[in-house]
Amino acid sequence: MPPVENDTGKTELKSRIQQLIDTNQVIVFSKSYCPYCVKVKDLFKELKVDCNVVELDLIEDGTNYQDMLLEMTGQKTVPNVFINKTHLGGCDKTMQAHKDGSLQQLLENEAYDYDLIVIGGGSGGLACSKEAAALGKKVMVLDYVVPTPKGTTWGLGGTCVNVGCIPKKLMHQTALLGTALQDARKFGWEIEETVKHNWETMKTAVNNYIGSLNWGYRVALKDKNVNYVNAYAEFIEPHKIKAKNKRGKETFYTAAKFILATGERPRYLGIPGDKEYCITSDDLFSLSHCPGKTLVIGASYVALECGGFLAGLGLDVTVMVRSILLRGFDQDMANRAGDHMEEHGVKFLRKYVPVKIEELEAGTPGRLKVTAKSTDTGELLEGEYNTVLIAVGRDACTDKIGLDKTGVKVNPKNGKIPVNDEEQTNVPHIYAIGDILEGKWELTPVAIQAGRLLARRLYKGATLKCDYINVPTTVFTPLEYGSCGLSEDRAIELYGQENIEVYHSLFWPLEFTVPGRDNNKCYSKLICNKLDNERVIGFHYLGPNAGEVTQGFGTAMKCGATKEQLDGTIGIHPTCAEIFTTLDVTKSSGGDVTQSGC
Amino acid sequence: MAHRLLVRRIWTLPAKEIRCLPASTATISSSSFSTSLQSATTRVSFLSPSRTLPRVLPHTSRREVSFNVQDHEDFTERVIKNELPVLIDFHAQWCGPCKILGPRLEKAVAKQKGRVAMAKVDIDDHTDLAIEYGVSAVPTVIAMRGGDVVDHFVGIKDDDELDSFVSKIIGQ
Ligand SMILES: Cc1cc2nc3c(=O)[nH]c(=O)nc-3n(C[C@H](O)[C@H](O)[C@H](O)COP(=O)(O)OP(=O)(O)OC[C@H]3O[C@@H](n4cnc5c(N)ncnc54)[C@H](O)[C@@H]3O)c2cc1C
To answer: Span A486-513, mean pLDDT?
Structure first.
C-alpha cells in the first residue's frame, strides 16, 4: 500500500489508531521480529495483563501506522506502548515503569467506570457478579426482559426463577399431588369423587413465591454492592455499552472486563399465526386463565415437562412431535418416559409438523385451529385446541447485543458463543457463561458454578475451572428421568458396543404397589466401561424423585465409581435408589428384568 | 435440584434476608434488623437537616386512614415532614401476609383518631425507597417521628400487638 498522501486518509488512520488506544487497556505497536518488543510482550504476559498487539510488519499499511505514531507521540521506534489511553513509550520506559511501580499504577488507573460489567441477571450473571463484588471489584449487572409477543414480562433473576426451573417444578408438583390424591383413596383416605383443580390459585401462589425471590435477588445485589441496572445492554465499543431502560433512556458505561450471560429465549416456528396466537413457556407459567385443551408442539424437555404437568392437572393434552423425543438424551429412556405419558392420557401426534395456526374464537382461552402436515406422506391434518404451546427449542440472545462491535465470534448457525476452558471468548476481555455457550450444558447449577469459578479466577487468583463432565440432570416428566454421564447411544459410539456393559432392571416402587399403578414401568440402567474396571460412565433412572436419587450418584461418578463399588454399597430399604446396588442383569445377556417381591 | 441450590443460597444468608414471611412466623428480633436501619436513620436526618414546620395534610384526616406513597418527593413531604408520627407499611403484591397485616394496621391506626398517620409503600413500585430503608422482607412496618425511625417490626402481628405498637409510638 502506498504512503498515505491525502488528508482524509490520514485522519481516518489517526482515528483508527486512536480507537485502538481508547478501547484497549494495553496496546503495544510492535514488530514481530523485534527482540525489545518480545521483551515487552513477555512482561505483560508475566503480569497476566491482557495486552493487545499490533504487529506493524505483518499488516499492510504498517509503515503508515509508524509515521502516524511518530506524529502522535513523537516516537518512531517500536515497541510503542499505551496503557489506559496514556502513552508510556518504548521498551526501556516500560521496564523502568515496571521497576518503579508506575506501570502498576497506570494499569490500575480508573480508566473504566467498572472493573466488570455483567450482561444478564440470570442464574450465571447474578452468581458471578455477586462473587466478583465480594472480592472487592466494582461490578455492574444489567438485566432486562424483552416482553414476549403476548406481552408477558417478569422480574430479576433470569429464566430459571421466573419462567424455568422454579415455576416448572412447582407445577409438576401440583400434578404429582393430583396423582397422590388418586392414590390416597387406595390408602384409605376418603375424598370426594370430584376433585377439582383451580389454575388461578396455583398460578397466583407460584407467582407470589417468584415475586419474593425477585425481591431477594434485588436485596442481595444491594447487600453485595453490585450495581444493578434494569436496562437492555448493547456493545457500542469493545469496552463500552449502551444501556437502554424501559422508558427509552440511554446511558453509557465502560468496563475493563465483560461477562456475557444473556441466556436464551423460546424459538418460534415461523409459520402463519405462531406469534399472534401461540404461547411459549415464557407465557405459560403466568397465564391468567387455565389453558384448557392444549397442543404442545415439540419434543424438547420443556415440551414434555409442560405437556406432562398440564395433563396431570386433568387437561386434554396432545404433543406434536416431528421426529424423536428428548434429542441428546438416552433414547431408550426418552421413549420410556414418553410411553408412560401416553399410557396416562397424553396423546402423541408423531411425524407431524404444524403449518399454520388460525384463530376461531378469541377468549380466555379462545379456540385455535391448527393445520399440520405429515412428514411422511405430506397429508394435512386439522385440529382444534384452546391453547397452542410452542416448545421447539431456544435461541441464544446474542444477535442484538452489538457483538459485531467487539469482534466476539458467534457460531452463525445457532448464535452460540464458543469459549475456551476458562469461559473466555476470542476477545480476551470478554467472557461468556450459561446457556449461550456452545456445546455446554444448559442448566442453572452449571451457569452458577461457571460464573462463580470465573469470578474467582479473574479476581482471586484461583485456578479451578468449571467441570462440564458428568453433570447430573433430571427431566421432570410425569415419571421423572434422571441421568448422569453418557447415554447408551453415545457410549457405544465412543467406546464400541463390545467395550461397554449395560446393567439394567425394571422396578416397582413400593409406594406404587398399594394403589396398583405403573407396575414395571420404572427403570434403572448403568453403563460401564469394560476397559476401565467397569467404571460407571452412564447413569439412568426413570422413576419417582429422580432428582433426589440422581444427585448422590452424580457425586459417586465424580469420584470415579465402578460397578464393583456400587455392588459393595449397601442399599437403603425400601427405596427406589437401592436398585443401583443390586443390578446384576446385563443387557447383553438378554435376561429378564421384571421385578417381583422384595 | 436447581430449585434447592438457588433457595439454599438465599436461606443461608442472615435472617434479615428472609422475604415474605409466612403468617405464623414470629417477628424477627430487632437486633438482626437494626444494622440496616441504622443507615436509614442517618440518611433521613441528612435528607431534611433544616426541617421547616410541617403542614398538616388533608390525607391524614380521620376519613382516610392511610395513603399510598407516590414517589420519593411525596415520601419526603408526607412522611418525613409529617408532624404526626407515621407508620410506613412496606408491602408487595406477591406477599400474602401483607394482605392480612395491611387492613389490621389500618384498623389500629383508625382507632387513634388522627393521632398517627399511615403510609403504604409498594416495594416493587418504589424499590429505591424500600432498599434505602433496609427492607429485606415484607411486611415491614417502620414507625417514624419527625423524620427519624423510632421503631419497626417485620412479619405479621395480631390486633392487640398492633394496638400496643401504635400506642407506644404515640406515647413517645
Ligand atoms: C421451561 C424451562 C425449565 C427449565 N428447568 C430447568 C431445571 O429444572 N433445572 C435446571 O437446571 N435448568 C432448567 N432450565 C434451564 C435454566 O433456566 C437455564 O439453564 C438458566 O437459566 C441459564 O442461566 P443463564 O444465566 O445462562 O441465563 P438466564 O437465566 O436465561 O438469564 C439471562 C438474563 O439476561 C437477560 N438479558 C438478555 N439479554 C440482555 C441484554 N442485552 N441486556 C440486559 N439483560 C439481558 C434476560 O432477560 C435474562 O434475565 C429450564 C429452562 C426452561 C426454559
So the answer is: 97
Confidence band (pLDDT; 50, 70, 90) for B51? very low
| Mean pLDDT score, A216-229 | 96
Q: Is the pLDDT confidence value at B53 over 50? A: no
pLDDT in tens, A469-479: 999 999 999 99
Q: Report ipTM for this prediction.
A: 0.71
CB contact under 8 A, A160 and B6: yes
Per-residue confidence (pLDDT) for residue B26, from 0 to 100: 38
Rounded CA-CA distance A61/A239 in Å is 25
Cell numbers found for residue A413: 448457525
CB count within 10 Å of CB A364 equals 11
Pairing of strands A317-321, B66-68: unpaired
For A228-268, write each residue's pLDDT tens digit: 999 999 999 999 999 999 999 999 999 999 999 999 999 99
Specify the pLDDT at position B36: 37
Among A155, A208, A443, beta carbon nearest to B96? A208
Is some CB atom of chain B closer than 8 A to the CB atom of A552?
A: no
DSSP conformational letter for A17: H
Residues constituting chain B: 172
CA of A123 to the centre of ligand 1 (A): 6
Q: A17 vs A32, A66, A242, A589, B7, CA distance in Å?
A: 18, 10, 23, 71, 49
Please work out whether the CB of residue A534 comes within 6 Å of at least one atom of ligand 1: no
Confidence of residue A111 (pLDDT cuts 50, 70, 90): confident
CB contact under 8 A, B96 and A547: no
Please give the full DSSP string across chain B, using - where no structure is assigned.
-HHHHHHHHHHTS-GGG--S--TTPPPPPHHHHHHHHHHHHHHHHHH-SSPPPPPPPGGGSSS--EEE--SHHHHIIIIIT-SS-EEEEEE-TT-HHHHHHHHHHHHHHHHTTTSSEEEEEETTTSHHHHHHTT--SSSEEEEEETTEEEEEEES---HHHHHHHHHHHHH-
Q: What is the grid cell recorded at A555?
A: 457425586
Q: How far apart are CA A243 and CA A252, in angstroms?
A: 6
Instruction: Please report the sign of the dihedral spanned by the C-alpha atoms of residue A37, residue A40, residue A45, residue A48.
Output: negative
Q: Identify the DSSP state of A273.
A: T
**Looking at per-residue confidence, does A23 or A432 come out higher?**
A432
N residues, chain A? 598
What CA–CA distance (Å, rounded) separates A27 from A197? 64
Regarding the beta carbon of A159 and ligand 1, being less than 6 Å apart is answered yes
Position A598 scores a pLDDT of: 57
Q: Name every chain A residue with its beta carbon within 8 A of the beta carbon of B135.
A: 219
CA A10 to each of CA A28, A30, A61, A448, A597: distance values in angstroms, whole numbers, following the listed order: 20, 20, 12, 48, 87
A153 touches chain B (CB under 8 A): no
- Angle, in degrees to the nearest 10, between helices A199-223 and A165-186: 140
Neighbours of A478 (CB within 10 A): 23
- pLDDT digits over A356-415, tens only? 999 999 999 999 999 999 999 999 999 999 999 999 999 999 999 999 999 999 999 999
- Alpha-carbon distances, residue A97 vs A27, A78, A85, A477 (angstroms): 16, 17, 16, 62
So which residues of A are the catalytic ones? Answer: 573
CB contacts of A245 in chain B (<8 Å) are: none
Between CA A26 and CA A53 the distance in angstroms is: 8
Cis peptide before A574 (omega within 30 of 0): yes
- Alpha-carbon span A40 to A79, nearest angstrom: 8
- Decide if A249 contacts B56 (C-beta within 8 A): no
The answer to whether the peptide bond before residue B103 is cis (omega within 30 degrees of 0) is no
What residues of chain A lie within 8 A of the CB of B92, using their CB?
211-212, 215
Q: Is the pLDDT of residue B105 over 90?
A: yes
Give the helix/strand (H/E) hosting A45: helix A35-46
State the cell numbers at B18.
428472609
